[in-house]
Amino acid sequence: MRWIEGLIAVLLMLVPFFAFKSENLTTYIYWIVITAAFLVYTSLDAKRWVYE
Amino acid sequence: MNSFIILIGLYAVLGTGIAIYARGARSQEEYFVGGRNISGIVSALTYASTTYSAFMMVGLVGLSYASGVGSAGFELMYLVGTLFLLSYYAPKVWELGKERGFVSPAELIGSRYGSITAKLSAIIALIALIPYTSIQLIGVALILEKNASLSFSMGILVVALLIALWAFIGGLRGVAWTDAIQGSLMLLAAILAVVWVSFKVDFLSISKLDGLLYVPNKIWTPKLFAALTVPWFFFALTNPQVFQRLFIPKDKAALRKMIVYFGLFGLIYTVLVTFLGLELKLMTLNGDFPSVSYRDDVTPTLLTIMPSWLSLLVALSILAAAITTANSIILTLSSMISRDVVKERGIIVGKLAVIVLTVVVALFALQKVSYIVELAVLSSTILLCFLPLILGVFHFDKGGKITGVSTLLIGFVTAVTLSYFKLSPLGIPASIVTFTLVFATFFVFSLIEGKGSAKTI
Q1: Which of B205, B277, B284, B319 is deepest in the core (most CB within 10 A)?
Q2: Which CATH number goes with the domain that contains B329?
Q3: End-to-end Cα separation, chain A, in angstroms
Q4: How many domains in chain B?
């Protein structure tokens, strides 16, 4: 069910197209936070590094 | 003497010294994948340097300047896709590579869809990546022309010599070590450039960026975003020069380190270059930076107003980014010629291919053909034809030779035809049409061909 993780990550990356319209760095910071969170998640999730 | 020429001289001596130190490969495994014995940190830096070309410091800064935060979204979407694909597939690919002795990236496809499919993969990769590699040489030659007063053709010659020399002498180990140093230089130059520009920006006027601060805007429509992100999302699996790097870490811990540190590098580097573009746009709106209409001129314009030491460092980092991408592609394509096309046992043809391919890429660059940018962009769409075959190896137990060859041929012909005639059927971007068609072809032929001896790995 790893593909669900990928799908959620993609959907989260698309949120600014529907949700934000502010004239500040909200969209930019949002994208950075989501990418950073996904990086932390993949690096800490030990199971995914095992060849099943 | 021009100080940039002196800097390039020192850079050439250092890189050549490293390549000489790394020489001595006798087997294909040693020459093309560093004996599968590269540390996690060096693997991460060579993966990052190979991935992030001169496009970042020139193209992405300009794109961010012209189109706003959407460029960061596009590049970070690529990074999310890469992290997802690598964290899932890389351990499998690494283990299979070690177990079955894969050296060329096409051998994974060949193990399932036959050697004819592997051979065709090598030919398609050659066609797709030669224009893309030529672009790297052109970018560097233009920088040398501007900063070192070298003629365009002399610039191409210098870069081609460095690419061929380092790859020829040191093989993957030499390329990886020089990549590691150059990757660090790329990051350092980007940090210093952002810090220097930040002192000149009035951040309180950020709202002046207006429509550039959100998506969709006039440039970043959902259609453009989808057209660009689909091929880039799968870059880690479709581009042979990065796929082959999954074979090089010395163990699973090094592989994990490679992916995590690459992700960290990619995040920091992407944020730096896109932020630089936004800062420069804000400076333009405040009258502190010239208005640049052609977006690829943004970074060259920045170089003219920076202190000379920083300008030299940033120019050198762009040169490094181009060389690391180009020599990695050349070495990977050489391994495909050696293993999949000629099927030699030694490394003589592979080493010869390094020289021949560099000459071909240099000659292509010297032509300065007007459609070279279109060809380079087309490469990522063409390479999508590998995707269903790679995923099929792991997830779909039907299909063989006919499926492999048909998927590659139909994907290649579709991508080239749509690009040549500038077609987008029903308004759908060429990359998405190609993506859909290669998967449809793959499933139809797999079902017709049936299971045979095929099984998922």
Answers
A1: B319
A2: 1.20.1730.10
A3: 13
A4: 1
What is the C-alpha to C-alpha distance for residues B406 and B311, in angstroms, rounded to an integer?
49
The tokens for B371 are 């459609």
Interatomic CA distance for residues B270 and B264, integer angstroms: 10
Q: Which residue of B has its CA nearest to A2?
A: B88
Residues 6+ apart with CB under 8 A from A27: A16, A20, B69, B73, B213, B214, B215
Q: How far apart are CA A18 and CA B430, in angstroms?
A: 25
In a domain, B21, yes or no: yes
Residue B33 CA to residue B254 CA, distance in Å, equals 14
CB atoms within 10 A of CB B420: 11
Cα gap B418→B385, rounded to integer Å: 14
Q: If you average pLDDT over residues B219-240, what whole number do you get?
A: 93
| Cβ pairs bridging A and B (under 8 Å) | 97
How distant, in Å, are the alpha carbons of B138, B441, B444 from that of B379? 17, 20, 25
Query: For residue range B47-85, what is the model confidence (pLDDT) as tens digits?
Result: 999 999 988 998 899 999 999 999 999 999 999 999 999
> What's the Cα-to-Cα distance from B266 to each of B83, B278, B298, rounded to whole Å?
10, 18, 21
Cα B244 from chain centroid? 12
Is the residue at B98 inside a domain?
A: yes
> Which of B386, B390, B377 is CA-nearest to residue B438?
B386
Give how far B210 is from chain A: nearest CA, Å: 6
Which residue of A15, A49, A50 is the best one to mutate when testing the B interface, meaning the one whose CB has the most B CBs within 10 A? A49
Tens digit of pLDDT for each residue in B289-305? Answer: 999 998 888 998 999 99
Q: By the 8 A CB rule, do B290 and B302 touch? A: no
Digit-coded pLDDT (tens) for B196-214? 999 999 999 999 999 999 9
Confidence of residue B422 (pLDDT cuts 50, 70, 90): confident
In angstroms, rounded to a whole number, what is the distance separating the alpha carbons of residues B238 and B230?
11
Residue B90 in domain: yes
Q: Which of residues 12-31 of A touch B (CB under 8 A)?
A: 13, 16-17, 20-28, 31
Q: What does residue B38 show for φ and ψ, rounded to 5 degrees?
A: -95, 140
Closest chain A residue by Cα to residue B258: A43
Q: How far is B388 from B289, CA to CA, in rounded Å?
A: 47
Q: Residue B222 is part of which domain span?
A: 3-369
Residue B262 lies in a domain: yes
Contact flag B214-A10 (C-beta cutoff 8 Å): no
Of the candidates A2, A27, A37, A29, the one whose C-alpha atom is nearest the C-alpha of residue B84 is A2
Complex ipTM value: 0.95
Cβ neighbourhood burial of B44 (10 Å; 0-12, 13-18, 19+): buried
The closest alpha carbon to B383, from B408, B366, B401, B406, belongs to B408
